[in-house]
């Protein structure tokens, strides 16, 4: 069972080889959830993405494969900002956190890993709906 209750930077294995660096994720060793979904985003706008979102049940890990970005996360009371720019470090986000990504560098590509298969009902795209979900209205 996962005991991480707040967003946190997780360091993944990083091995130097003659051909460059190698980073990997193995089941039950490097992240606190079973991966059910992998999504990568690229050709990202250099400003902020037009929408934020929250997942009701899914845990996430955001890994910057190339470039850098800022991620703002809030539980409705406390807000934190994380700067991601290392392909061997990912931002773990528990369920029920609002996520807003911005300030992408040119040629950024991010990998998002999720603990749940895609289900449109799982996502909240309106901040006021997120606040209702968190009972902070």
UniProtKB/TrEMBL annotation:
Do you know which InterPro entries this protein is assigned to? QdtA_cupin_dom, RmlC-like_jellyroll, RmlC_Cupin_sf
Q: Where is the Sugar 3,4-ketoisomerase QdtA cupin domain?
A: 7-134
**SUPFAM superfamilies with a match to the protein in the record:** RmlC-like cupins
Q: Which domain of life is it from?
A: Bacteria
Instruction: Report any Pfam family annotated for this entry.
Output: FdtA
What is the name of this protein?
FdtA/QdtA family cupin domain-containing protein
What is the species of this protein?
A: Autumnicola tepida
**Which lineage ranks, top first, belong to the organism behind this chain?**
Bacteria, Pseudomonadati, Bacteroidota, Flavobacteriia, Flavobacteriales
